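Deliverable D5.2: sample structural annotation.
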Amino acid sequence: LSYNRLNGSIPDRIDGLLRLSHLILAHNNLEGEVPVQLCGLNQLQLLDLSDNKLHGLIPPCFDNTALHERRVLSLLSGIDLSCNKLIGDIPPQIGNLTRIQTLNLSHNNLTGTILSTFTNLRHIESLDLYHNKLNGKIPCQLVELNALVVFSVAYNNLSGKIPEMTTQFATFNESNYKGNPFLCGLPLPICRSPVTMLEASTSNEGDDNLIDMDCFFNTFTTSYVIVIFGIVIILYVNPYWRRRWFYLVEMWIASCYYFVVDNLIPIRFCH
């Protein structure tokens, strides 16, 4: 039913379609939350709800555990929830979908970290987390996903060192990671400051200032005090420069006085 003008929400009674293997409702105007009743479709192989107006959390039911004495979503090989308004963390249960080949959660408002349980997805070929608000590090264990062909975490708030360029990760370039200013490591710039990267991974607040203002003011004040003490010591030790200094101060005071008298004090005419 994709590419129509369907609106409203996905009905809760959809769990009655027990033999449904493909549910494709992409490119409509559907609203509401992703119904948890989808967990009861134990024959479902493909779920595509992309490009709608769905909001709320991703149901934490994508699991291989029993529900009403049935194993749910154990056949699911493709999930596309991209281009919606989903929020919250990625449910860790997604890591239990061992048959998954495609997972697209891009263009949402998902937060939290990239799950280390993704390493269980041995058959995954496409993992797209593009344009969310994910933070923390990219798990280095993802290099174990030997079937991975498409991978994007661009435009998030990720930080730290990216996984080593081995196996499938050797085929990924800078475009797969762009939009994460605190990521480093090949093919991005080399990680130079471990302290900075640690602070970036523990704080999600964006900071556009390239100068540490506290450090700047401390350095400026110290330099200013040192210069003043240097001038005082030179004047104390060298009588010639001391006389010259007092002469310049006297000339400066006189110049200021006559400037004020000639320019700022109103002229009074005698009658």
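Annotation notes: Confidence is low (pLDDT under 50) at residues 63-71, 204-210. The first strand starts at residue 7 and ends at 9.
The annotation will be released with the project's public dataset once the embargo ends.
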